[in-house]
Amino acid sequence: MLKHYQHFLTVQFAVDEINKDPQLLPNISLGYQLLNNFHESRLAVENSLMWLSGKGPTIPNYSCDRQHKSMVVIGGMSSTLSMAMATLLGLYKVPQLSYGSFDLLLSDEVLYPYVYQLGSRESTLHLAAVQLMLHFGWTWVGLIISYDLTGEQFFMHLKEEMAWNGLCLAFTEQVSEKIKDYDYYIKFLARILGSSSNVIFVYGNTDSLKYFSELLMIFEFYGKIFVISASWDFSAYSTDEMMSNFHGTLIFSHFKREIPGFTDFLKSVHPLANPEDIFLTSYWELAFNCLLSEVKNLNLTYRQCRESLTFADVPPIYFEKTIMELSSNIYNGVYLLAHTLHQMLQTEAKVLSEFLAYPLLSWKLHHFLKCVNPVSGIKDELCGDGPSTTAETYDILNFRSFPSKIWTEVKVGEVIPHEKVLSINEEDIDWPEDFPQIPSSTCSVACGPGFRKQFREGQPICCFDCTSCPDGKISNKTDAEECMQCPEYQYPSKEKDRCLPRTVNYLAYEETLGMILAFAALCFSILTTFVLRVFVMYRDTPIVKANNCSLSYILLISLTLCFLSSLLFIGRPTPAICILRQTTFAIVFTVAIASILAKTITVVLAFRATKPGSKLRRWLRPAVSHSLIFICTLIQMCLCGFWLGTYPPFLEMDTHSEASFIVIQCNEGSLVTFYCVLGYMGFLALVSFTLAFLVRNLPDTFNEAKYLTFSMLVFCSVWISFLPAYQSTKGKAMVAMEIFSILVSSAGILICIFVPKCYVILLRPDRNTLEILKNKANP
């Protein structure tokens, strides 16, 4: 191919450069012999035999050439050509420098002991490929490899590295002779085109991917982009028209080394300056589509070549202006030979005389070439550059195809695999026409924040479904595998993509509900105080005296404290308030219920002790009622003391009841003791209600028994309804429910017992007389 003419120019330049160096091989001039195998194994073997036999008939083990033979063979361009040549050259222990891509088969010292590979091992190409995938987010890619040991090794390394980085292979296809079979060819295409992967990595050299190249000549892969290595020269088996199918392809190429002086050397190369170079003449006429010789006859097809033409005017498809990777390998190979020969001649003095007498001493070079044999891994500074396998750097090239059969490769980035450094200019990349922007290649659409990946059973990890995070958890990144819990003092947003700070929540005086309840408690406490003042002011009236004024005072004072105790439930709780509010409420409410019980018992005993000399009269003394109140209250105080001494109420931060709030509340501690306290009050109320209900029809002047019955009915109804509501509510709603129960039950007692009496005292004083009392009592 025309663009491979640079290989020959590199040999010519390197040999001229070495011959001009007085320090390297002094008094010895290097020469070279050029044989063209046209990239065919048959011709490679034939040329090798011709080189060994010399001019004339090619007869094995016989040489007709009187000239000195070359010491080393540089070739071939591919592993297939190198193997074909090595089968013959190896018989004569001729050192062979293979400048093509590194091949594991050629590194076998048993089969090919005299082959030295100058190409890079590409031992980190799989790392570079993974870095490119990670950069563009290609998690689902296809792989096409050569059907040989090198392709298999690349596949294993790539698969391992991809799995480590969470990447997947959509398919893996090997290129072999089976593609020639029509059925296999159809299935091969179906597997590739049927894949959802948009990016296909292709690995192999020009020979091993020959059949795939031929396939691309008759079929175009629409909607796919290729990522390849420079070892695959796809133009070798492609027509000019098919090159446009590779537009946008990304190519990993080894860092191109600049050879000092090579550009100036190209300027000096011209057919007119080197008329004896028949290769240059033929190349010149083909590249410029003109004739160098004088046109004697009329020729409308070709024109005369202009003398001003130089290599700078050669189209890129025919000649690379920058040094190519294979040319760089050739340049290193020539210098490797020069340094090896120089070292050998300096080490063994008699070799020089033997060399002049017996020129075929190339087998002695092996001892010195071993120092740079990539298989042994030994390297000597005198043996030239040699291949390096540790610090590889790759250029990322973008193949671009233009009209008029013009194409070029533009460097768009660089990657250093071992250091995991990738720099790429995305704006400089010209993607295939099927992709107006950076192509995506994923099995599943990325899961955004608020979702997590749920892997599909039996499929690669790159194929998944997106499910929303469960309540209480969030994911704040793309493709999260697990949702995470928010900290205790934060809660998930509605989208479940971030944590928001929780608001401290409690029944505050500033909010509407707190203000209403506090206002109601104050109003009822003031009303109760007003009723108490009325009873005190009218303590000498018959209606007050008839209703046991001392018990009424105790009841009114306890009701006032009941209303005020509800204020302990409003506002920000503290540990002291948590201990005080339930115990205070329980004790003052017990006093109130005990007072009602004492009133009820007094009413019962009053009608039982109407006979003169009845022994029940002594139980009607105020001291008995006060003692009853004291005993009932003492029992409640003992229960509260036991409660506080064992498992008292405490302050807690409830982060579970309400997602967006931290509820500051009082935990009741021992629920058993708490319900015992409430149950004890319920027991007193039930006894009072039962007694009042039994004597409700007694001829009471002011219907005290009926009022007590109604008040206890209201009390029991409220607190029976309170228990299930208390269990079903949380946070400040639960606190509000308890305050409401305290206020309603207390207000029920106040209204049912004292409002009728205040009505008579204040609005109907004419009925508040002893005569009416006696008439009512004796109808």
Automatic annotation (TrEMBL):
<dbReference type="Pfam" id="PF01094">
    <property type="entry name" value="ANF_receptor"/>
</dbReference>
<dbReference type="InterPro" id="IPR001828">
    <property type="entry name" value="ANF_lig-bd_rcpt"/>
</dbReference>
<keyword id="KW-0812">Transmembrane</keyword>
<keyword id="KW-0325">Glycoprotein</keyword>
<dbReference type="InterPro" id="IPR004073">
    <property type="entry name" value="GPCR_3_vmron_rcpt_2"/>
</dbReference>
<keyword id="KW-0472">Membrane</keyword>
<dbReference type="InterPro" id="IPR017978">
    <property type="entry name" value="GPCR_3_C"/>
</dbReference>
<dbReference type="InterPro" id="IPR000068">
    <property type="entry name" value="GPCR_3_Ca_sens_rcpt-rel"/>
</dbReference>
<keyword id="KW-0675">Receptor</keyword>
<feature type="transmembrane region" description="Helical">
    <location>
        <begin position="671"/>
        <end position="695"/>
    </location>
</feature>
<feature type="transmembrane region" description="Helical">
    <location>
        <begin position="707"/>
        <end position="727"/>
    </location>
</feature>
<feature type="transmembrane region" description="Helical">
    <location>
        <begin position="583"/>
        <end position="607"/>
    </location>
</feature>
<keyword id="KW-0732">Signal</keyword>
<feature type="transmembrane region" description="Helical">
    <location>
        <begin position="739"/>
        <end position="762"/>
    </location>
</feature>
<dbReference type="InterPro" id="IPR028082">
    <property type="entry name" value="Peripla_BP_I"/>
</dbReference>
<feature type="domain" description="G-protein coupled receptors family 3 profile">
    <location>
        <begin position="513"/>
        <end position="777"/>
    </location>
</feature>
<keyword id="KW-1003">Cell membrane</keyword>
<dbReference type="GO" id="GO:0005886">
    <property type="term" value="C:plasma membrane"/>
</dbReference>
<keyword id="KW-0807">Transducer</keyword>
<keyword id="KW-1133">Transmembrane helix</keyword>
<feature type="transmembrane region" description="Helical">
    <location>
        <begin position="513"/>
        <end position="538"/>
    </location>
</feature>
<dbReference type="Pfam" id="PF00003">
    <property type="entry name" value="7tm_3"/>
</dbReference>
<comment type="similarity">
    <text>Belongs to the G-protein coupled receptor 3 family.</text>
</comment>
<dbReference type="InterPro" id="IPR038550">
    <property type="entry name" value="GPCR_3_9-Cys_sf"/>
</dbReference>
<dbReference type="GO" id="GO:0004930">
    <property type="term" value="F:G protein-coupled receptor activity"/>
</dbReference>
<feature type="transmembrane region" description="Helical">
    <location>
        <begin position="628"/>
        <end position="651"/>
    </location>
</feature>
<dbReference type="InterPro" id="IPR011500">
    <property type="entry name" value="GPCR_3_9-Cys_dom"/>
</dbReference>
<feature type="transmembrane region" description="Helical">
    <location>
        <begin position="550"/>
        <end position="571"/>
    </location>
</feature>
<dbReference type="InterPro" id="IPR000337">
    <property type="entry name" value="GPCR_3"/>
</dbReference>
<protein>
    <submittedName>
        <fullName>Vomeronasal 2 receptor 624</fullName>
    </submittedName>
</protein>
<keyword id="KW-0297">G-protein coupled receptor</keyword>
<dbReference type="Pfam" id="PF07562">
    <property type="entry name" value="NCD3G"/>
</dbReference>
